Each structure stands twice: as C-alpha cells, then as structure tokens.
Amino acid sequence: MSKDYFQLHMPENVCFGCGVSNEEGLHVKSYWEGDEAVCQWESEEKYHGWANLLNGGILATIIDCHCMGTAMADAYRKEDRSLDSDPVYRYATGTLNIKYLKPTPNDKTIELRTKVTEVKGRKTVMHCRSIVEGVVTAEAEVIAIRVYDSSQDQGGNPFK
C-alpha cells in the first residue's frame, strides 16, 4: 500500500522544501504513522555543511516543511475528512525553535517524527525530532499558524 503523503494534496505548492511543483526543491513528503507524522528524507552531497554532515539550514527547512504539512493534515484529521476535501487549509511558520544535539550525517536517511502537542484556534504546536540510525540529532518546537481557509476566501486565494 502506498503512503498518503500530505504534500501531494497541495498541487499548487512551489515551496523549496515541500513543493510538489518545485522541480529544484527538497521534496519533503510526510505521512501518518499512528499519532506521529513521519518523513523519511534522503539528502544529496550538495546539501552538506562540513564534509559528510548536513547543513543546519537544510535540516531546519525539512523540519519546517514537514511540520507545516503535519499541521494541515492534523486539522483535516480532527475534522474526520480527506486531505482532498474542502475547505482547503494552509499553514505558515509562526515559530521554529531547533536544538541541534548532534551532527546530522548527510549520507544516511534522516527520519523526522512529529507529534501535535496543542491546537488553539489557528495555532498548532508540535514537537519534532530528527533521527538518524536511532540517534536523535535535533529536536524542534514548532508553531504553525493557519493562514488560509478556503471557506473564508473572498476570491483572493493565493494558491490558485
């Protein structure tokens, strides 16, 4: 069975980190595994910081994009509806607070695991871990803000 990646339900997305419509992007893809959103991401040599280590800004980008997709998917899940249903929600970063704990290898699969810890109005708070071969290399507290709700659209949908 193929995974239902959150980002595939945002066909107009041109974001560098998660946009399916950005050929040059990082192509972050997230899915549910129980109550956690998971992303398995493979880097490329061009994203290194030091030799064989991932650049910290790239790690921040994949965490950020994974969490924005998670906030969206969580909202749909809480409403017990498909990611292809209306109204359409989109999220943007309110806060991204990362603790880099250990160097992140650039030549191994990076797994992101995120749990939603609080939802209050348009705000979703999440805890994300970056894990490589069982070792947590970074932890992040991320706040996503719902910035678009198609049920409130007055003809100004920025995604069309």
TrEMBL record:
<feature type="domain" description="Thioesterase">
    <location>
        <begin position="53"/>
        <end position="129"/>
    </location>
</feature>
<dbReference type="GO" id="GO:0016790">
    <property type="term" value="F:thiolester hydrolase activity"/>
</dbReference>
<dbReference type="InterPro" id="IPR006683">
    <property type="entry name" value="Thioestr_dom"/>
</dbReference>
<dbReference type="Pfam" id="PF03061">
    <property type="entry name" value="4HBT"/>
</dbReference>
<dbReference type="InterPro" id="IPR029069">
    <property type="entry name" value="HotDog_dom_sf"/>
</dbReference>
<dbReference type="InterPro" id="IPR052061">
    <property type="entry name" value="PTE-AB_protein"/>
</dbReference>
<protein>
    <recommendedName>
        <fullName>Thioesterase domain-containing protein</fullName>
    </recommendedName>
</protein>
